[in-house]
Amino acid sequence: QQQSNTKMNTPNPPHVLILPFPFQGHINPALQFSRLLISKGLRVTLIVYAEITTELTQGQLGSLAVHFLSTHDDEEEEPAVQAGGFGFLDRFAKTVKKELPRVACEIERETGSGAACLVYDSVAPWALEVAREMNIPCASFFTQPCAVDAILYSYYEGRIRAPITDKEEKFRVDGMAEVSLAVHDLPSYLHDEDDEYAPECLALLAAQFSNVAGADWVFCNTFTALEEKIVHWMCNKFRFKAVGPTIPSIYLGKQLSSDDTCHEYGLSLFKAQHSPTYLKQWLDSQQPKSVVYVSFGSVASLSDKQTEEVAAALEKLDRPFLWVVRKSEQDKIPPGFVEDTSDRGLVVTWCCQLEVLAHASTVCFVTHCGWNSTIEALSMGVPMVAVPQFADQPTNAKFVEDVWGVGRDGEEKAMARSEEIEWGVVEVMEGERAKGIRKNAEKWKTLARAAVADGGSSDRNIEDFVDELVNLQL
Ligand code: UDX
According to the UniProt record, where is the region Disordered (predicted)? Predict the structure, then answer.
């Protein structure tokens, strides 16, 4: 395994504050990006807004400092957070605006090192103003792929109008004109008129571009080889740097430091039901390339009907499976399913997904195609059967099948159908098409590793950023 060099040896390295959006799919890449910066010699404090993340389970964090920002409750009259509601957004912004400058001063007093930069989640564009008030440079961090960002940018600039009502319309988007997109391939909020939150979500996503040209850097959790043309297009527009995959480097064949051996890095909003040892033993006991891994991420909530369809597919497939059904979703599992399939299947409330994807017995991933899950599977060379639900997931699924050639996308989005899952799994496992899919999966795995290896495209982009910060401090 390659070990990265700590290149800086100054007593007072630049101190970077990283502010993720307080959701699992945003905390994970921010945390791993923090670890990459630390491996280059920077100090990093991850700023986690605690209202939504009250039950975080803390894994190994090494030298990463985490500061939890408590809700600023001077104005308590606002209602409590509703599931799926946006009440917390204002409080998140208010709290960060008020508390972050004070926290930065506290950190400076304690460590002698003032904040040198604020890296904020792109869906919190108001943080740019916070950085300006603190008189420090800042970077916007996009946690979705460039393809999705390019589509949303087209919407922001008025080239795509929403809600899209002509369901037969086809789209070609600047930066990726070679890909023809059907309406159902676009982020759901552009066309899903049944989703009551769509207008709010779309406004939030469009706002990412409202001041991004003013950011000193724009980062994205992707890698150049994966989205080459769009990355170049982005580089012509912004001070853009692809820095992904921001997944624990140990899974990409790179050790960040001599004690970087633990796979349990993270801050998890969900508790794994079994110990990593139990899960490993279960996976070890399965045949190589036999287990179908199924997960719909941290947010998607399948209907009872969709959950039944997934269960029916797993029953008919008659293969080993590991199915993550979050605690809040468990009562949707058809009665008797867990018992009837216990000889070959395991249903868990949460697990360490990367351990599963990296395991030799895993053969494919039935996924909602959240961006973290997608880039994790791409990086581990695991073929995917896409069952996208909402947000960027349909676009990621389209790319999984048509652009990267690493899986099957469903005919109808936001709809799990038992036959489709069954055929999808068979298709990515057996026959001529499966051979091509496996070959592509290996190719992207190799390219993902090359991007983060010392001197690889993402590694160089991170080093350039570190050098620029150091120079600013001199
Ligand atoms: C959300 C949106 O749904 C997604 O579309 C967007 O791209 C990011 O924000 P989420 O639904 O959580 O994300 O999916 P995903 O992006 O795939 O992130 C889930 C993360 O949780 C992954 O890093 C995955 O490894 C981890 N995970 C998931 C576990 O560690 N254990 C599990 O059991 C399931």
Answer: 1-13
φ/ψ bin of 353: left (φ > 0), alpha (ψ from -120 to 50), beta (otherwise): alpha
The CB density around residue 197, as the number of other CB atoms within 10 Å, is 14
Atom index in ligand 1 nearest the CA of residue 374 equals 17
Q: Is 467 a catalytic residue?
A: no
> Are the CB atoms for 324 and 351 separated by under 8 Å?
yes
| Segments of the chain with pLDDT less than 70 | 1-10, 53-55, 72-85, 261-265
pLDDT tens digits for range 243-259? 999 999 999 999 887 77
Is position 26 annotated as part of the catalytic site? Answer: yes
pLDDT of residue 112: 81
What's the confidence (pLDDT) of residue 87?
77
- 177 forms beta bridges with none
Q: Whole-angstrom Cα distance, residue 302 to residue 366? A: 14
Tell how strand 181-182 and strand 217-220 pair up: unpaired
Tokens coding 312: 């029916």
How many other CB atoms are found less than 10 A from the CB of residue 273? 15
Q: What is the predicted pLDDT for the residue at 83?
A: 41
ipTM computed for the complex: 0.98
- Return the beta strands (E) in 277-380 as ranges: 291-295, 321-324, 345-348, 362-367
Residues with CB under 6 A from ligand 1: 23-25, 28, 144, 295, 297-300, 324, 350-354, 370-373, 376, 391-393
**In sequence order, which residues have a C-beta less than 8 Å from that of residue 462 and are 6 or more positions away?**
36, 37, 40, 241, 243
Which structure tokens are listed for 271? Answer: 């508790």
- Among 15, 121, 260, 359, the active-site one is 121
Q: How many angstroms does the Cα of residue 32 sit away from the middle of ligand 1?
A: 14
**Which amino acid is residue 40, in one-letter code?**
K
**Cα 97 from Cα 207, distance rounded (Å):** 17
Q: Which atom of ligand 1 is nearest to the CA of 299?
A: 11
Q: Report the alpha-carbon distance of residue 158 to residue 153 in Å, rounded.
A: 9
- Where are the strands (E) in 60-180, listed by range? 65-69, 115-121, 138-142, 170-171
pTM: 0.95
Q: What is the pLDDT of residue 255?
A: 87
pLDDT at site 70:
81
